[in-house]
Amino acid sequence: MDGLRAKHIIEAENPKVTAVILKPNVGQIFDFCCNRVWVRVNEKGKVIGDPNPPMIG
Questions:
Q1: For this UniProt entry, which segments traverse the membrane (predicted)?
Q2: Predicted confidence (pLDDT) at residue 48 exceeds the cutoff of 70
Q3: Domains detected in the chain
Q4: Which of 9, 13, 20, 55 is the most exposed place for a label (fewest CB within 10 A)?
């Protein structure tokens, strides 16, 4: 699935959540935040699913 599509679905299903797309080789902030979901994508912008589904943080 395309990362932008995943972001829109996540935010539509829960308007209190912000989805953040993480591109390859980009650092992640490690402060925990209940209203943020990390969506990891590959070089082509496709969601990397197994073993790393979108995660809260």
A1: none
A2: yes
A3: 3-56 (3.30.10.10)
A4: 13
